[in-house]
Design a protein that fits this description.
mainly alpha, Growth Hormone, Chain: A, 20 helices, 0% strand, globular
Length: 427
Amino acid sequence: MTDVAVAESGGLKEFYRAMNPPERKAFWACAGGWGFDGLDFTIYPLVIGTIMTLWGVPAGLAGLAATSTLLASALGGWLAGYCSDRFGRVRTLQVCILWFSVCTLLCSIAQNFEQLLIFRTLLGIGFGGEWAAGAVLMGETIRAQYRGRALGCVQSSWSLGWGGAVLLQAVAFTLFEPEVAWRAMFVFGFFPAIFLLIYIHRNVEEPPIAVRARAQAATVGRPPIWEIFSPAHLRTTLLASLALTGAQGGYYTITTWLPTYLKNDRGVTVVGSTGYIALLILGGFIGYLVGAWVSDKYGRRLLFLIFSLGAMIMAVVYTQLNLSPILLFLLGFPLGFFSTGYYAGTGAFLTELFPTRLRGSGQGFCFSFGRGIGALFPTLVGFLSASFELGNAMAAFAVIAYGTFFLTAFALPETKGRVLEPAVQGA
């Protein structure tokens, strides 16, 4: 099947069959990175209730650990994006994976909440950097005809990592007492990434377009890290950053507090909540795949509009209506579908917004800025829940976040099918 036929078919299988070996190797490397990212990051939201009980940590302070991870990831993402422009996409990706894996292991030996807060904050640097380096690596390696589907499918591995964390929680809390189980989860989060690092070192090559851009920069001068704020790029940078703030603020509001909401407001046990979270994750996984197809078939902007509106509605329905246990269980699927699926288009969209020599910096900053500001939402929800019901706090911030994402999507350009070329100095 030709590239044109693949692009027109809109299929999820055909594009993979049409990929060449370098594209496939980058695909699996980045899928593994996002999967382990999802596993390591999600461990804390799953054990937050246990840590609050064991160490007597109030909700607002417990939420601060989630926020500090995301704030640090904002810095890590921007720095990793800049480093990927300067030192290479593959090398930066490897460093970031090693960083967040080691920090995950350190979390397992924390003796108090202050130490855990420090380790989680450090973890965020590598966590944010992995996305930035991996997304630009994928965006430049995969051809324009199916860039959205490839990146969307890669991002779906986050749900697999999330699901792995939930399965790990069920096993750990079944085999061990709570004070040991949460530590065991962090220990396990370290080891799989070592095998991924070996795979990347042996198989993944730097995209030729990035090699040419760095060679050009060595001749004519490297762009400063702040050039994405120059008049030529300022509007794009600001709008994309605001859109990603809404997208991530809503996502982290739901995923950080949903396990605690099920336990405290709905009376679901830690082990009993596994089924609820599993259906949420399944919805997210399917949302990624559908979002990837929509992104390439109908465009990035329509994907953002449909899914942000759906996520807003589902967040309100899930937390505000007096649902029966069976309905609460079943509605986890559409909640996960809409609150996650729009991520399928973000990587391709940000890749296509910036010229090659600024792509790492621009993509890293916009996604990371959105993650940093969106990171405030879990903490604010935690503090607000001291005066209001947790479900009400979650709904309020979800509406603000997804509403912002919906509105800014109208102001953003459509980038579907844009071919990437090395930019000349000053472009």
